Amino acid sequence: MTSFPGSPKLLKGGIVLLDPDSGVPVQIVVLQYNPDTLSRTLQVQGIGPEPGDRLEALRLKSPPLETIKLEAEIDATDQMELNDATVAQLGIYPQLAALEVMVYPTSAQLRDNNSQSNSGVLEIAPMEAPLSLFVWSQVRVLPMRLTEFSITEEAFDPNLNPIRAKVSLGMRVLTVNDLGFAHKGGNLFMAYLQQKEQLARTGAQGSLAALGLRGIP
Q1: Which superkingdom (predicted)?
Q2: How many CA atoms lie within 13 A of 117 on its CB side?
Q3: Whose CA is closest to 15, among 107, 86, 103?
Q4: Is the pLDDT of residue 203 over 80?
């Protein structure tokens, strides 16, 4: 780590879990190292599956389906050099567990559903998970659902605790179509979209001359 006083503060990417009712953060997972690459795919949601539908050719029925994929690294080397007691005992299990619990219902929810089933409840509502936010700078705070999750543990200590791993995450951005305008996640999506529109307006505007045109034919 550089001690140069002019070094900018490095922001980290991460995931924040919000209580679905109150909107209060219940867990914050900060990525140890920012991934070198982040891939995004936007699937356009147009109308009219058949070509030649002239009435619907230019219409958009909803925001695109945006998916994000990244690969994060977790390494215990730095903490081991600082004699971190938790890492010495458990390796990077706690960091991995913080990510893994996002795709599990809680043990309390499972026990409650089992209790309701044993008491004769005929219809049990699916368990609601916290609202997940993917945070990648101040201008990208995205409500999302994890769709892919894989872990490759690459090194272990003498007690077989993992000390280095790669985590691959796949996410789908949740829009107002998924959550509604009144939902906290819907509000965050609208803020994300408005920020994107503002960035598009502040970007350098091209000219027809740059395309070799004097006007539109």
Answers
A1: Bacteria
A2: 8
A3: 103
A4: no
Judge contact between 142 and 134, C-beta under 8 A. Answer: yes
- Nearest alpha carbon to residue 95 among 77, 75, 78, 80: 75
Which helix (H) or strand (E) segment holds residue 195: the answer is: helix 184-202
Percentage of the chain lying above the pLDDT 90 cut? 56
Check the CA dihedral 51-57-61-66 and report its sign. Answer: positive
List beta partners, residue 42.
66
d(Cα 27, Cα 17) in Å, to the nearest integer?
5
Please tell me whether residue 27 adopts helix, strand or coil conformation: strand
Tokens coding 58: 């230019």
Domain limits of the chain?
A: 14-40+59-105+127-197
What is the three-class DSSP state of 212?
coil
Closest CA to 184 of 138, 131, 146, 147: 131
Positive or negative, the CA dihedral 23, 24, 29, 35 is: positive
Q: What is the chain's length? A: 217
Strand order in the sheet with 38-43: 25-30, 14-18, 131-135, 141-156, 162-173, 65-75, 38-43
Please tell me the predicted confidence (pLDDT) of residue 1.
Answer: 47
Give pLDDT tens digits for 138-171.
Answer: 889 999 999 999 999 999 999 999 999 999 999 9
